[in-house]
Amino acid sequence: MTDSADPSTTNPVDLDALAGASVRLRELHEADLASLCAWWADPRIVPFQVAGPPHLRPSDGVREMFRTWSANDGLDCGFSIVAKDSGELLGHGALFQTQPKDRCATLGIFLGPDHHGQGFGTDAVRVLVRYGFAQLGLHRIQLEVFAFNQPAIASYRKVGFVEEGRRRSAVYRNGAWHDEVLMGMLRTEWPGQGMS
User: Domain N-acetyltransferase spans what residues (predicted)?
Assistant: First the structure.
């Protein structure tokens, strides 16, 4: 006996859940680590890192950090971001600090400096948000960004994040204090909520 139902309407798995208009999220490959580590240590990226003072870590520690972020063996998930058309590595994105009771996760993303300003980051954030809400069943996605990172803030707003508050003078960079901006999005505010 055969099932006459249209498989495109009955398949519960969204095969494009990790694809956007210009990017695709995929598992971390060992070959990604050299570029990710080099970008992480790039002086154009270092000021935007949240953890501790801006300094260079030994590459072995950074490699292990990316492996841990991308292990995907628990509630948190991390992905390499690649160009959809060429497969070129662009950066890394993650949903982490997942709180199952509250159905909340924190979003983090970074791109290699040569890939900034081309729309890849905004597209990757859209894909991560869609994955979090439509596939993981999250209720809330939040993030933290330094106030001087105006391109990132504009990108997050474009996707639908709203500013929820600030930690005033929370980070010291280049001899000055800067605010840390807290942003969030609820599933009910997600522009793609009707797509799941």
Answer: 23-188
Q: 174: domain range?
A: 18-195
Domain membership of residue 1 (yes or no) is: no
Q: Tokens representing 108?
A: 């983090």
Tens of pLDDT, residue by residue, the chain (196 residues): 444 444 444 455 565 889 999 999 999 999 999 999 999 988 888 888 765 555 566 677 889 999 999 999 888 999 999 999 999 999 999 999 999 999 999 999 999 999 999 999 999 999 999 999 999 999 999 999 999 999 999 999 999 999 999 999 998 888 899 999 999 999 999 987 655 4
